Amino acid sequence: MAARKCPFRHPATFLDLPSLRKLLDLRASTPTEQELDIRVHHPKEMNIVVHVSRRTVLTSALTAGAAALVPRDAHAAVPAATPPPVLRSHDPVELRWLDRDTPATLAGGTTWGVPWPRGAFSPDQQFSLSTAAGEAVPVQTWPTAWWPDGSVKWTAHAVSEDAPRAETYRLGAGRPATGAHAIAVRESAAEITVDTGVVRVAFARHGNQVVRSVRRGGVVLAHSGRLVVSRQDKPDTDGPQAIRFESFTGSVSSVVVEQSGPVRAVVRVEGKHRKGSREWLPFVLRFSLFAGSDGIRVVHTFLFDGDEERDFINGIGVRFTVPMRGELYDRHVRFAGTDGGVLSEAVRGITGLRRDPGAAVRRAQVAGEALPDPATWDQRVTSRLHWIPAFGDYSLSQLTAQGFEIRKRTGKGHSWLRVDDGERAAGLGYVGTPSGGLAFGMRNFWQLHPTELEITGAATEEAEATVWLWSPRAGAMDLRFYHDGMGQDTYPEQLDALEITYEDYEPGFGTPYGVARTSELMFWALGATPTAERFTELAAANSAPPLIVSSPEHNHAAGVFGSWSPVDRSTPARATIEDRLDAIHSYHQDQVDQRSWYGFWDYGDVMHTYDVDRHQWRYDVGGYAWDNSELSTDLWLWYHYLRTGDAAAFRLAEAMTRHTGEVDVYHLGVWKGLGTRHSVLHWGDSAKQVRISNANYRRFYYFLTGDERTGDLLHELVDSDRTYLVLNATRKIDGSTGPYDPDPTALPFGTTTDWGAVAGAWLTEWERNGDPDARKRLLASARSIAALPNGWVQGGTTYDLTTATFSSGPERTVSIGSLSSVFGLIEVMTELLDLVDEPEVEARWVEFCRLYNGTAAEQQAVTGASWGSLNLRQAYSRATAYAAVRLDDDTLADRAWQELRTGHAGYPDGHDWGTRRIEPPRVLHPVDEASFSTNASAQYGLAAIQCLSLVGDRLR
């Protein structure tokens, strides 16, 4: 197992409050800022020791997992006060491909995560992988999370393209097999070189070439890999008289080797796009290379730090130069179309001519092979080759989700010829010769339109291959706010407007400054022009990279992610609920395609609320438009995948994580760490909150795949509570109109929606990196909430940023809202209380769970006041179920099922669970509609899933 490495953290800068304000003013006015790690005061050291819970676990999952454990050494990084874990035994785990079918090829390789029950393995445990038939598979392993006792909770694994292929595999303790190839990484002052045994890739440490060269067998197949961006100062849509254009190239500032084999190497590259004195659009690239593979996977992230009123991006891409060796008739172009289709062309075609060069010649060119000696051709062709046009430029542009077009031309200054078109391209191209070339592509190519694959100069000595994440053939990217404010200049006006469109508008808050987008690209340095069949295999791997997964049963038995259980239709009552869960999930999944929720900034999100009169989701009505994780849609989709193991469910949740973690969250600027509430534009609403940036929503994807970019997002959120020094989240509630002058020891930071999100970030950081400060802040804050006179419903609380503790007056008061626990608080508390032994915290949390749907008399008896008429009672049935298990109370368990069935603010038993087909001309095209809303579906899904797991034995 690879040694554990904690990610680099910038040293903290400690400032007094006036200095902090000056710095924040500077940061707000500087377009190209230097990000700093700011703390108002160093947190006091706290002597907190985490104990392993001695309580009975919530579900049979952990009990089942405890029967499968292997003795190993304790984790060396565990504090001395923590005793070594008691390790038991664990049998090998069966793994399979997510999409069930054994893939023909991989996207260079594949990386996946596997959970282990507490106490199963020590961090230095080695793992071996084999096919079901017993053939050894070289595998690389590294831990990604630990249990409090120091045993490994999650491991990530990687195999390469040349690994033996099988339907299923077995992963268990043992020495990993050695492959025919091993990654070799060499570092110098000027560059980093990664050799897979098949290709050798050189990364520049500085300059505007990210990749200096890609060699295969000593031959340079591609070089000068670089990032390109163009902007214009005015939008196309306003009919400007004159537009000024500028082009920028990515400039490298940092290159780090994050993994160095033996199976997988990862190189992280950071920088900004530069022209002259201007640097903007920070980028983070991760290159993954696999032993024995010619594939190079790139995870490309850029952050928008421009001015949306004058920076209109009209092209952003990744470009390589490809040497073109040989005659023009031996230069080939390939594009993947739809359903396995391939366009195969030569720069200088010799088929379809008036004179026939010969069947063998024609057959070789179509196949992408080197043509026979021209002396063997019909000389009526050979003597006239120079009259045949050479088409050196090609383009496949996907400007909408419903159509792509392929064009070509002889060169710049000449017209384009239309070649063909189709609906949804697989997003892979190739340019090269029979002696080698470059395949280049982008995942989710049509979903993330407007995209393009472009080849230029193939008729010259060097071609250029560009993957355009935003095609220059599309209109320029317009990130401006969609209306002028309509006179909403004061808080009373904004609150009044909220009453009609549900949009929380405020001038200056609809900015995209600091949002990001991540795309996944693939490059293959091929030793020859691929056959059509081979190219189709590569295109499939590019579109849906094959992934290895562990089963729902194993994941459940490992005891991860709280209260859930695999699908169980063993009784009619269970089967009914399973059918309903499938119905709501299938409906929302199908709506993505029926409503075309695609596009560069949109793909991955879903809409919030439906308009039955227009038979349309309310895409244009304020806060009813894009969902932006409202009421934990992300959590619902991930739990559905965990239970079912369904590939389509995984892809839906994966796309949402890629979107909501990047586009809906600020990664730069004064609001860094905050997300934006639901709105017509993903960043449009003025409510900037941690409930949206929420680590609880991202951690599933990180642990299930080991994706490093998601790891970055999780790490970003560890200090997101500091942002409340900058933004008064309650400004419209308390009417604050003057300068915000916060006291860092008494911030307006909620104990429920706010704390639940940050607690998830601290919990994940502690699990991932053993961060003692994250653990201290997590436990100190939880203990302080429990110590409040009324715990999680105490009113008038404030937050001390320096100690991560809450306080209030000594009197019992009640302040409770229905949204308090529906942004991951219930789920994170379930996990936390299973990890630590905190009786006071547990008692107060169970009290909250019992009382939310309790009677006014019960609430009065405990907290001194009724909690009023609370909403979302169906959603809180899972809180009742949790209390039932902790208190061993069958009456509460029965009450939980009654709450779910009654369906307050959700779906009662008598709800219509079907869909209705709406046909033209009532709508633009046929669509299905149902009596579902995204919020209600998410909360019904979470409540039903957790009730089944917690109190399923009481379901009648």
UniProtKB/TrEMBL annotation:
Protein name in the entry: Tat pathway signal sequence domain protein
Domain PcRGLX/YetA-like C-terminal alpha/alpha toroid stretches: 545-955
InterPro entries named in the record: PcRGLX/YetA-like (IPR045793), PcRGLX/YetA_2nd (IPR048330), PcRGLX/YetA_3rd (IPR048331), PcRGLX_1st (IPR048329)
Organism: Promicromonospora iranensis
Pfam families: PcRGLX_1st, PcRGLX_2nd, PcRGLX_3rd
Domain PcRGLX/YetA-like N-terminal RIFT barrel: 92-172
Domain PcRGLX/YetA-like central beta-sandwich span(s) in chain numbering: 183-539
